[in-house]
Amino acid sequence: MDSRNLPKHTIIEHDLLTKIKNGTYKPDTLIPKETELMEIYHVSRPTVRQAIQALVNKGLLAKRKRRGTIVVQNKISQEFAHVIESYNDEVKNKGLTPRTHVILLQKELPTQEVYNSLKITKDDYVFKLVRLRYADDQPVVLVTSYIPYKIFPKMDQFDFEDVSLYETMNSNGCPIDQVRRKIEVLAADETTADMLNIDMNDPIFYFHTIGFTTDDVPAEYSIAKYRGDINSFEIYIKR
Questions:
Q1: Measured between alpha carbons, how far is 22 from 13 in angstroms, rounded to an integer?
Q2: Closest Cα partner for 39 from 51, 52, 50, 48?
Q3: What is the pTM of this model?
Q4: Which interval of the chain is the signal sequence (predicted)?
Q5: Rounded average pLDDT over 169-173
Q6: Smallest Cα–Cα separation from 7: which of 45, 50, 40, 39?
């Protein structure tokens, strides 16, 4: 069909899509404002909004409060749901560059949720490790891990921006052999949204994980908050 016979909003949609595909508008960057697009295409605001909404519905654009409309990055397919693998290895296998920022590492007494999950008493100290993890400089997941002090008393001697938690535990005599995970989809609170560079109330994948040693001793309890807009999860089921 001759593009001249297409509705104006469809022509704009196709042009925006072309610019997304050829990299003119890169992932996680803002496209021009509505007023700018009105001038570029010589159309009304409703026509521009119709074109943008069509690409939002296809998952190619996303509207961000107080920011504008951004190009959505291709989703990162995670095997996290069924494979015990370090984050760095998983991200590298996708052809991306991983990076970890340690926000907190401290020794503290556990909350009821933590000591129940780790099968310890409320007087047993734990290490709390909070990490913000990136792929190609894009924040992907906020992880809070709790490790019983009596299981890994030297934990605070390691720099977890450079080393893997599971690999370090393994080399120090407390390997994680199996895990149990529960997933929820929740709305991001203000702190989580700020750290993950999303809007408040945007959906996040919320994982609770308990890691066990070969002797079935709980050695780790973690909460991982994955961005909903750039992550998907693969789950394999075998009969």
A1: 14
A2: 48
A3: 0.70
A4: none
A5: 92
A6: 50
Q: Please give the angle made by the CA atoms of 38, 42 and 46, to the nearest 5 degrees.
A: 50
- Centre a 10 Å sphere on the Cβ of residue 93 and count the other Cβ atoms it contains: 10
Q: Which tens digit of pLDDT belongs to each residue from 174-191?
A: 999 999 989 999 999 999
Residues 72-115 have pLDDT tens digits of 766 665 655 545 667 777 777 767 788 999 999 999 999 999 99
Start-end of CATH 3.40.1410.10 domains in the chain: 76-233
Specify the CATH number of the domain 3-71.
Answer: 1.10.10.10
Question: How far apart, in whole angstroms, are the C-alpha atoms of residue 131 and residue 220?
Answer: 15
Instruction: Name the superfamily (CATH) of residues 76-233.
Output: Chorismate lyase-like (3.40.1410.10)
Is 229 in a helix, a strand, or coil? coil
The Cα–Cα gap between 145 and 166 comes to: 11
**Which part of the chain has CATH 1.10.10.10?**
3-71
